[in-house]
Design brief:
Elements (H helix, E strand, L loop, with lengths): L2 H18 L8 E5 L5 H9 L4 E4 L2 H10 L8 E4 L8 H7 L2 E5 L2 H19 L2 H4 L12 E3 L5 E3 L5 E8 L9 E2 L7 H15 L4 E7 L12 H17 L7 E3 L6 H6 L4 E4 L1 H4 L4
Parallel strand pairs: 1-2, 1-11, 2-3, 3-4, 4-7, 7-8, 7-9, 9-10
Antiparallel strand pairs: 5-6
Length: about 280
């Protein structure tokens, strides 16, 4: 099966899963996870209509964005892996949506950097001591003074909060096994979310989780349902935030995730084949 055929098949499966629960397929965005795959394959996926790409690591995202600089206005890049705070600045330049804000400290770091960039951006060119970086073709992107392509890092960063609702020790995220049923943990998490929402420069849009792997996709359903229920509780507690995004589901279980309310599904192997 060709790449184009695989993508068409995934879209058909997304539509079928959405219809099973009375949803529109347009509510679900396919993110093609490009980890280890070459730019040429990503370019082929974009030509086949996939406009959202996901990367796990900042360094690899940087290489892909630079190699596909001509497609930067067409591709939305999602950073879906853990972000080290010392790479936060570059992550802000590269990613259009960050799925993996997994701690208060990372949120504070991102907020601080956005604030610094906003202050720098307001300076006159001669005072800032750097060449003009705005790309006249779009307000979202810049050509940085070091020649690297990037997103304007002084605008608010859309983010998702990564939550470990499964309790699996190997998973990153805010630790809340059981979701809303974990009353003690929920109180702590709500306080952390309140603190994050007060950080300027961040636009929280929803939640992300990774379900434990199991050969039976149905085994992931409780994890996805727990994240949806947590999102619903947050929407009640913090109605000033839309909470419209639920990033959950991968190649083996994205249909179950859609049935449980996923709006963003992160699919790698089913799109590109096995990793090289």
């Amino acid at each position: 099966m060709s790449l184009t055929q695989r993508i068409a098949s995934i879209h058909q499966r997304i539509a079928a899963a959405a219809h099973r629960t009375g949803r529109s397929p347009t509510e679900v965005t396919l993110i093609a996870v490009t980890k280890t795959h070459p730019p040429e394959l990503i370019r082929e996926a974009q030509a086949a209509g996939v406009l959202h790409m996901g990367e796990n690591r900042v360094q690899e995202l940087e290489r892909k964005v630079e190699a596909l600089a001509d497609l930067r206005p067409q591709i939305t890049w999602h950073l879906i892996g853990h972000v080290q705070r010392n790479k936060a600045r570059r992550a802000l330049e590269l990613a259009d949506l960050m799925h993996s804000v997994d701690s208060v400290r990372l949120a504070e770091t991102l907020s601080r950097i956005v604030g610094e960039n906003q202050t720098e951006d307001r300076k006159p060119e001669t005072e800032a001591g750097r060449p003009e970086t705005r790309d006249p073709s779009t307000a979202r992107f810049v050509s940085l003074s070091n020649g690297r392509a990037g997103r304007r890092p002084e605008i608010p960063m859309p983010v998702l909060l990564q939550v470990n609702v499964s309790g699996e020790a190997s998973k990153e995220g805010f630790d809340l096994p059981g979701g809303v049923a974990n009353e003690a943990g929920l109180a702590t998490f709500l306080a952390e979310v309140e603190h994050i929402l007060a950080q300027p420069g961040l636009a929280v849009q929803g939640l992300m989780t990774i379900a434990p792997y199991h050969p039976d996709p149905e085994q992931a359903r409780p994890t996805f349902r727990a994240l949806r229920e947590l999102r619903d509780r947050l929407a009640q507690h913090f109605p000033q935030v839309s909470w419209h995004q639920l990033s959950m589901g991968m190649s083996d279980d994205f249909e179950v995730a859609i049935e449980e309310g996923a709006t963003l599904v992160r699919v790698g192997r089913a799109v590109f084949g096995e990793r090289t």
